[in-house]
Fold:
Amino acid sequence: MYEQLSHSLLNDILNKIEPKIAKQDLRYFYTRLGANFYAIHSLFEKLYGGRNDFEEQAQALVETMAKQYISRPEKLRKLDIDRELDYNWFLSQKWVGMTLYCNGFADNLKGMRNNLHYFQELGINLVHIMPILRCPEGSSDGGYAVSDFRKIDPRVGTLEDLQNLSDDMQQRDILLTLDVVLNHTSDEHEWAKKARAGDKKYQDYFYTFGSRTVPDMFEQNMLEVFPETAPGNFTWDEEMQRWVMTVFNNYQWDLNYSNPAVFIEMLDVILYWANMGADILRLDAVAFLWKKIGSTCQNEREAHLILQLLKDCCQVVAPGVLFIAEAIVAPLEVTKYFGEDAIIAKECEIAYNATYMALLWDAVATKNAKLLNQGIKNVPVKLERATWLNYARCHDDIGLGFDDKDIALAGYEPVNHRKFLIDYYSGKFDDSHARGVLFGENEKTGDARISGTLASLVGLQHAIEIDDPIAIQNSIKLILLFHSMILSFGGIPLLYYGDELGTINDDSYVNDPIKASDSRWVHRHVIDWKKAELRHTRGTVEHSIFTALKHMISVHKETGIFADFNNRNLIEVENPHLFVFERYDINRVSERVLVVANFDGKPQNLDLDSLVSWGLPHYGQLVDLYTGQRPEIFKNTLVVPSFGFYWLYEA
Ligand code: GLC
Ligand code: GLC
Structure:
């Protein structure tokens, strides 16, 4: 859009731009800047317009973008142009992801490079490497307390190692996803050190207070993220003699985004990693970016403005790079992180589908899809050019983030139901063999979350211990059922490393004083590669899970209907144990796949006549994409095996 005011500001900026920048060939940069500048200017003004140094800051913003554009490698600039042409590229079903810790998957970045074939063997072509930047030697929240945003943690390697890895991944058509921890730094970061030493400029990078007055005011409405290990949201810093806002752990200092210098620094960091070859950046804890007295300091409107501004600026420099919003918040809030536009994601193109994840865990515990059917209706239709990350497990705990209203509508009493789930997954419930460990228990609110690997939570650990072949089979079925759900729902399926081998809990963290108080370490294991070799040996758990997933992934990738174009209809059926939806081809609606999942331990039946749109004459022609076989149908009744699923199409 053309608007005089922003255009004349842009002219001023370009007139004053450093001669070094002015000399470069910046054609693509200028066309994109022109196209985005109205939006950039209005967002920047909304956020920082009241400041005396506004114009100076706007100049710095444009120069930051220009410099990063200049250092963007030619091959990445080409990729940007390809992706601008094929702008829906990431909605394809061809992408299947995995999240992992570099030092859990291999010793270090070099080791990862040697293991890339493993991803190809399974069919993974998007790899999210958990934080690998410099962080404190001791507690670092698994790398989410960053001490230097531009240096790799020497324990995993060097920048050169990362570049080599990223080059190799690109050659193999594997996307690289890296974290940018936007919300906070470690207290060992240079900015924190300077703030601590009394430097006012850097104190203004954080939220620091001389007395408790303001912190106490904030505390009236803020929640606690880590109530057991880091109660409260402020930490007294002895050296600085000030309180500092620390929403997560006491060594994670929240950045002050009401200071434009912080915004520009973090934009520069984002563009830096984009230029290192990251295809996708996972923006951590985005819900927390803006702090306002009297609010929970989550999901504030300004947090969205910051993300929009980051997106607009990134579009100028590195338009091929996508953002993932890590916002584990209510469904209605989550979709706002795509940006409130009709079509295009104006903030992040991808968001974690935590709602679906938590609902799937509910279905497994209750052995029915009542809450799943109810809760999933709240996940609003996503924008056209945006997609979900669908996952069963990740490095964090499982929060029971569904709505009490939905729990009630599904026929349960909310408090009791939540208690049931916690008891179920921590194995306290009679009928449960789950081996979850509680996380974030909050005595004040009665809230708790759950840690544990997928395999241990679905009873595989128990089944192996008691050497019960049927229980082992059932757990494997549940592991596959979970994956069938994240692969068919629409969005990018994101596996968690080790789940493809049935990895069970690793309790050794309790002996490590740095990790002992954080039960999430129970599922942040080191892959045992000798054991992983068993994936080639028939009859082993590893073989059963790995080969099934490998097959499931390959079928998924071949099935265009699984691409994410809002082409899903939920189908509510009478049998509460079943979760049913259809996926269809947006161009030929008669081309469709019926997904049926049975969360019960007994076979369940589905009356096919009740599926109005799936006309009668076709029963005989239904084929399951996954097995290639005709499903069990008796007259008009489809029989779904215990913990089984179908991906049915009309042959
Ligand atoms: C995100 C990460 C989590 C971390 C937190 C603070 O939620 O996923 O692991 O503890 O941010 O950085
Ligand atoms: C908070 C964050 C969530 C993260 C969790 C870490 O709840 O909102 O993103 O998963 O902390 O356990």
